[in-house]
Amino acid sequence: MSDPTFLVVGEILRAHGRRGEVRVRSLTDHPGPTFRPGVTLRAARPSEQSLPDLFLPPLEVTSVRPHGDLFLVLFDGFEDRERADLLHGRVLLRPADDVPPLDEDEFFQHDLVGRQVELADGAVVGTVVDVISLEPSDLLEVAVEGRRRPLLVPFAAGIVVRCEADESVVVIDPPDGLLELDADP
Q: Quick one: 6-98 is in which CATH superfamily?
């Protein structure tokens, strides 16, 4: 899989107030370098996360302030609620080249998709098809052969026992019952 041109860094939930601010959920573990004045982001439809919406201009962050576990962000040219409403439901993209490098034990979500999931004894569970961003940990959506519904595996220490940047496998030690959870009837 080739590296993407843009990375999804946030999700615009809705407009906030009359000044044009929008509520943004950060989808990055390091929001500071991304959600700060002067940074330029692009908006995309959630169904087309790798392609910026060409009908919307680049979005330069002019102000940011925390709002609980969200951020209130104001973009240049979107200084009223009517304009801010145009961004509702969009995801925010940042050029991959502008994203600071990751720490050794960190991964971009796209780096996990396509990896084989195995148990510690080498038994194959399935393949990661998506990563769902949740708190307190992300979930790996794993396609399992012979199963219609995907298996959801917490990407958490104690369950994921090995996941190295230079390997194409995720090794898990699931708690009892996890592999049978939500299995097809």
A: RimM (2.40.30.60)
